[in-house]
Amino acid sequence: MTMWVFGYGSLVWNPGFEVAEQRLATLEGYARSFCMRSVHHRGTHENPGLVLALDAAAGASCQGVAMAVRGGQEADVLEYLRARELISSAYVERNLEVRMADGEIAQAVTYVIDAAHVQYCGGMPLEAQAEIIVAAHGGRGPNTEYLYNTAQHLAELGIADTDLEWLARRVRALAA
């Protein structure tokens, strides 16, 4: 049985593991959102950045990619993902149903936000998000790089995200 991982942010352009197969997929009931303060990878405790998370929302859906893990590497990939994604326990690991572009349904390891966690900041206006992203820098680099890479790779895959596209334009303007 194939282990799938659902990517909607940095996993799309930096999975960190060998992807055996990648397919466009949709996750129902969640929205991609800059709703998590980043105090490790794209910000610090003193100057938190923002990273994308899946925020539960009735009627919402998120397009992303389902990535198949090469057989025999499942335990190593889970160990890697848990060290990367669960660094502060703001994400919760779930096995959720995703629908592939061809209609196939699969269970995928998915990281969603814990709305009760102190790093959760859902509902923040886009302008406030832009102001945070342009100024933050963390252990994995500038917050702007995270935004730009994600927006670019989603666009290359044909995945439209109007909020992300607006943020990328606005952050570029603020940085200029």
Q: What does this protein structure show overall?
A:
The chain is α+β, with helices and mostly antiparallel strands and 176 residues long. 31% of the residues lie in helices and 39% in strands. The protein has a 5-stranded mixed β-barrel with strand order 1-3-2-4-5. Helix 3 (126-135) crosses helix 5 (162-175) and helix 4 (143-156) packs across helix 5 (162-175). The longest helix has 14 residues, at 143-156.
Low-confidence stretches: none
Strand line-up in the sheet with most strands: 1-3-2-4-5
Tally the helices: 5
Strand content: 35-45%
Distance between the termini: 49 Å
N-to-C order of helices and strands: EHEEHEEHEEHH
Shape: globular
Summarize the amount of helix as a percent range.
25-40%
Category from helices, strands and their pairing: alpha+beta
Largest sheet at a glance? 5 strands, mixed, barrel
Q: Average pLDDT value?
A: 96
How many strand elements?
7
* C-alpha-based Rg, rounded: 15 Å
Offer a quick outline of the entry.
With 176 residues, this protein is an alpha+beta fold.
Topology of helices and strands:
Layout: E1 4-7, H1 10-13, E2 19-38, E3 49-69, H2 74-85, E4 91-100, E5 105-113, H3 126-135, E6 137-138, E7 141-142, H4 143-156, H5 162-175
Parallel strand pairs: 1-5
Antiparallel strand pairs: 1-3, 2-3, 2-4, 4-5, 6-7
Helix pairs in contact: 3-5, 4-5
Salient structural properties:
alpha+beta, two-stranded antiparallel sheet, 5 helices, 176 residues, single chain
